[in-house]
Structure formats: C-alpha cells, structure tokens
Amino acid sequence: LANLVQGLNSTDPDVKEKAIAETEKRLRDQEAGKEEESKTTVNRTVINTRASVRLFLLWNGFLAALEKDAKERAKRRKKNERLANALKEKGNDAVRKGDYEAAIQRYTEGLEKLKDKQELYTNRAQAYLKMHEYEKAIGDCEWALKCSEKYIKAYYLMGKAHLALQHYSESRKCYQKILQIDPQKESLFKDCMNEVNLEEKRMKEEDRAMKEFLSGKPAALSVKELLQKLDRPDQNILYYTGGIRVLTGSVKDCTEQTLFRTNNGFSIINDNEVVRRGFCAERKNIAEVDLSVSLLLLWQAVCAGNEENQRLLLTHPDVNTQLSKLLSSGVSEIQKETLALIVLYSENENGRRLLVRHQDLSRWLQILVMFVNNTDARACNAMNILSDLTQEEKFKTQCRIMFSTGVLPLFTQLLTSAKLVNQAALAHCIGIMGNLCADAVIRTQMAECKECWQACLKLVDEYFDVGTPKYQECLFAVLGLMMNLLLESNAIIQCLAVDVSGRCLSLLRDKDGRIVTRAIGVLSRILPASSLAVEVVVKGGVVKKMIKFLKAGGQITSNYAIKTLSICTRSNRQAQEEVVKSDKRFSVLLKLLESENEIVVGNAAFCLGHCLEVPGAATSLLNSNVVMILLKHAGGDATRTSVQENAAIALGKLCVAEPRHIVQLRELNGMAILNSSMKYVHSI
C-alpha cells in the first residue's frame, strides 16, 4: 500500500498512470470479492473507480500541501523570532545608553518580524515611559496583554503610565490585577499603591496651593499683584508652579509684557531659591519638570515680539547657562518648550544676534541635529532654528570647533539610518549641512570624511528600494550636499568617483526632474576627478542622455549637461563619436553657442572643439553659421577670456579639419582671429 501511495504521488507520468491502473484493479477485485461473499445481495450501483482515485489524489495532495505550508510557516516563524530577538537586544542596548528613540525604533522593527512577541511590546512601552509618551505606553501594554492576559509586566507598566497621566483609579486597577494573578507579589503591590497614594496627595496639595495663590479675586489680579504673590518666601514648589501658570495666562499683550519687566519679573529665579533650585536641578523630579516647563511658557509669553524682554532674559546668568542643558535634558516637555522659546529669537535678525553674542553655540549644532531622531514637533523646530542660525557667519565659525569630532560622526550616522529617523527633518538637516559648506573649513572637513561619502551613497541606494516622497526629499538634499562638497578636490573624491558617477547615471531615469537635474550637476563636478569614471559613464550611455536633456532645454539642467558633455569629450574618443552621431549636424551645440549664458557658450565651444577631431564632423557643418558664431565669440563679444579661447580653438580646429570653412572666414574678415587662435590649437 505504501508503494502504491508513493506511485500515486510520483512526478513521473508513466509511474503515476501505472499506480492508478493498479489502484483501479484492486478496487474492482475488492468489489468482486464482496459480491461472492453475499449472493443474496444485489448491488446495482456502478462504481466510478477512476473518480475515486482522483478524489483520493486530491485529498492526499491537500494534506501534503497543508503539511508543507505548516512547515514553511514554522520555518519562517523561527527565522523571524531569531531576527526579533536580535532587534530586541539592540533595543535593550539603546535603552542602557539612554537613546530611547533608537530603542523604540529597534523594538518596532522587531514587532514587524513577530507581532505576537509580548516582550517587545512591554520593552517599547518602557521606552515610551522614559520619553513621557504615556498614551503610547498604555497602547503597547494592551497589545502585550492580548498576547498573554496574565503578563504581569504589562500591568505594572500600564499602571505607571496611568499614574503619570493622573488616572489614579486606573492605575490602582492595574496593580490590583497583579495581585490577583500572583498573590506572592504583595510587596510589589504595596509599593505601587503607596506611590499612587503619594502622587494623588501631591496633586491635591498642588490644587490647594493654587487655590491659596488665587485667594481673593483672581480675575482682578494684575501682573504686578501676581508677581507680589510669587515673591512670598518659604512656599513649596507647587505653589510657585501654580502661580507662574496663572501669571503666564495674564500676559496677553505688550502692556503686560512691559509690566512684567518693570516689576522685576525676570528676578523670579535669583530672588527665589526654591524656584532657582528647581529650574537648575541636573536631574529633575516631576515637580521640578513642571516648574521648568511653566517658566519656559511664561518666558515665551513675555518675550514674544518684545526685543527688550528677549535681551533681558538671555543676559540672565542662570538662563544663559541652562539653555543648552535644557535642550539636551532628554525630557520631551522641557525640550519642546525650550525649542519654542529659542524660535522666538532665531526667527528674527536681532534675536539671532543676541543668541550669537550671549550664548556659546559651539555645541548647539550637535545638540539640535540630534532631534532628527524625534518624530514630533521638536525635530521641525530644531531644524528651523538651525536653518535660521546658519545665516549668521559667527555661528558658522563657532560650528567649526566641534564639527569633525561631534557633528560629523552624528550626521553620518543619521544618513546611514535614514530609514529609521524622521525623514522630513533629515532632509531639512541635510540641506542645512549643505548650507554650512559655504564655510570653507567645514566643507573641507566634510569632503575629507570617507564615512560621510559612503553614507550618502547608501542613502542613494536605499532610495531605489524605498522611493517614498519623504525619502525623495532626502535624496534631493543629499545630491545638493554632494554638489557642494565637490567644490573640493581630494584623494577620497577621486577614489569614490566611479561609485558616485554610477549612482548618478542610474538616477537619470528618475521621474522627478529635480532629482535628475541635481544628478547631472553631481556628474558635472565628479567626472573631472577620474578618467575611469568618465569611461564608465560613457559606456553607460551618458552622451545620449545629455543630448536628450539639452534638447529639452531646461536652463539649469542644460548648464550641467553641457559641462558633463565637455568633460566626457575632452579625452574620450567614444564620447566624441557619440556626440557626432547623436547630435545631427551639431544642431544642439549650435543652439547652445547662441545662449546668453557665457558659461554654457564656453562649454559648448569646448565640446565642439573636441568633437571636430572625429573624421567628417567638420564637413557636416558646411553651409551652417558656425563660423560666424565662433568668430563672434572669439573676436571679443564674449567677456570671459576662457570663452574667447574655447571659441577660437574650435574655430581653428574647424578650419584645419575642413579647409572649405576658410572661405566663409575670409568673407567675414576673420583671418586675423584665425591666425591668433592657431597658437591655442598647437598648444593642446
């Protein structure tokens, strides 16, 4: 029977047919045996033995497919579990380093591999708690409980998140659930319940302090009266936090801003030790975080559009010292409001100058670039501040101090991790780094960083796989950065020229015209660094592509395309021949020679001069106006000496290759110019 089943499953048609025949025979013999055993029973049912065999085959095939699918799913799950565990460990490493954004990314990637891995949900929830994103933490704990309804860690973290949101009853329910699942966790239960009770008591005290602060008729209190209430000594931190919030709400226009200043509102820190200590604390507790956020909101209210208040705040010693510390505090609420405050300065020229004058901005570039890892408004605000600050030359000068040791490694890492970070912010950040390249010192440091170039190439490669609009903006910015870096020339650029050129050649097929234009721009600047790169792109069809783009006629694209062609034809015979073949009678080059842009004219004349070395090329230009055009540029119409020389060289090569052009030259009285151009022809 086993041999029969094996034959039925055989892939050999002959073996399978033989097995079917044997099966049918056995079924007939079995039926005949039954009839012999009982002669009294008349069975007139006709048995379709072949249909039975087919049904057997279908059923057997279904079971086999089911078993195969189960094995494949088990294999995939085992592989995904291994990948998920590796990502979990990477996330755990990031948590130990305090990089919670990276940890969240790793845990998220792990969940994409294995959606029912409860530890990844709770680990990510723990990272969200550190980032004060409590709602997200609760969501992850709920998912973990769907994986395992008795998962104690999920209830514990959910209780923490509810407590932070002041959901005291929900927090208690989570901790009570822990005790129900495991009565031996009574000690943990008591500690958690005590924490809830203390926090609830603290909030009641804060409410009581607020009511005390607002005793009397709060609606009628002026800015001056509110400041006087804040001047009371020996109150707890909750009293001052509540008072600052009330004061912030009362500052609604420039009149209240002036009253705040004239009533010594900025002395609230140095005159009050409780406020000063809470604001300047290195590791802030919840109450100190609330106080700091309240102060930042107050300063936003009193400084918005008020230059004098902005000056007074920034010259305050404690504020001056704390701004960079607040930015790098890791507490999202503090970072958010600190960035919002700095935006008030960076968005206007006077404010930027105050920052440059009174702040040590040497670390600001590194600190602000780190916000690219954030997915919220902090990333956008940080990039806007940087974009504004790069308008100040003194800021660029300060950036040099830590650029190579602090900023460049961080920026390279962000480029390498482009898939994982805030891509809109990353695109903005890349553009900012491109603007910083206007500083020769910074540009040189970036251009000499091989890791930075490799990270740029990695981003280009990933674009071919990802291709999303946000990634497209990153690519556009990277191409602009590469163009700026290629103003430099060094051994690393020469070494990577073939790789860079190859990527740009591939990008010429992109549907986004901006990408194509910048890819051509990079080609025009990278190709002079390597003759091998020229050879590679010429073999890859770059000449035909450049002719195509030149025919389309975009001004910037044409500028880059003709420069690329001039570089390729300078030393590559194949490129010269392809121009002659692709540009019939040099119609494209002749049109470019009449451009109002002298750089385009110079490159077109340069390219034409080299292409005239191809046999028959000069003859194809008979009966054209090429002599008159070149004569005009060589004779002095062009203001640039290099353009005059290129036109003169092309004119000389034209007449040497095809003497019949000399007739037209004589008619135009251009022999003197031809004679003067011959020295250029002989020198090349």
UniProtKB/TrEMBL annotation:
By what name is this protein known?
A: TTC12 protein
Its taxonomic path starts at:
Eukaryota, Metazoa, Chordata, Craniata, Vertebrata
Q: Please list the coiled coil stretches.
A: 97-124
- A single BP term in Gene Ontology: sperm axoneme assembly
Q: What keywords are annotated for this sequence in UniProt? A: Coiled coil, Repeat, TPR repeat
- Pfam families recorded: TPR_2
Q: State the InterPro entries in the record.
A: ARM-like, ARM-type_fold, TPR-like_helical_dom_sf, TPR_2, TPR_rpt, TTC12
Q: Which PROSITE patterns match?
A: TPR
In this chain the TPR repeats are located at 152-185
Look up the record and report any one GO term of the cellular component aspect: cytoplasm
Q: Which gene encodes it?
A: Ttc12
Q: Which domain of life is it from?
A: Eukaryota
Record's SMART domains? TPR
